[in-house]
Design goal:
CATH topology: Glutaredoxin
Helix content: 40-55%
Largest sheet: 5 strands, mixed
CATH architecture: 3-Layer(aba) Sandwich
Order of helices and strands: HEHEHEHEEH
Distance between the termini: 61 Å
Radius of gyration: 20 Å
Strand content: 15-25%
Number of strands: 5
CATH superfamily: Glutaredoxin
Strand order of the largest sheet: 1-3-2-4-5
């Protein structure tokens, strides 16, 4: 009888530890890049005082270089800046609204207003420096 109870306790503890381990691997919600579309863009602007949006397309080679940089910066700057990605092929009106003629283009919005734009693929440090300068954050 004691062996069965001990086994149940061990199994319960093992599950609890696995759940904790799994939860610690998932990034917090603010550390995830948001999907930006024509339908949710206005809401995102109003909800996020510092919003960085990467305009990209699947066929764009330089965009594939910038994508992981955006993901990394999103985790590093979680709680300070919100990051999003907008596929220009799926959201042509949004891309046209901001005159995006080359991708990747990264738009920085402060308080719902366009504050800066980065056109082209740059290294992580350059992008982060520009974001910090635009939003008045320490480097």
């Amino acid at each position: 009888m004691e062996d069965e109870e001990l086994q149940r306790i061990r199994e319960r503890k093992r599950r609890e530890l696995e759940e904790k381990l799994h939860a610690s691997r998932e990034p917090p919600p603010q550390a995830r890049v948001i999907l930006v579309e024509e339908t949710n863009f206005g809401l995102l602007l109003s909800q996020h005082p510092r919003l960085v949006v990467d305009f990209w397309a699947e066929w764009c080679g330089p965009c594939r270089t910038v994508g992981p940089i955006i993901e990394t910066l999103c985790r590093e700057m979680a709680g300070q800046v919100t990051f999003g990605k907008c596929n220009t092929d799926h959201n042509p009106r949004l891309a046209a609204q901001f005159g995006i003629s080359a991708i990747p283009t990264i738009l920085l919005f402060r308080g719902g207003q366009l504050a800066d734009r980065i056109i082209g693929a740059y290294p992580k440090d350059s992008i982060k420096s520009r974001i910090c300068r635009t939003f008045g954050l320490p480097p």
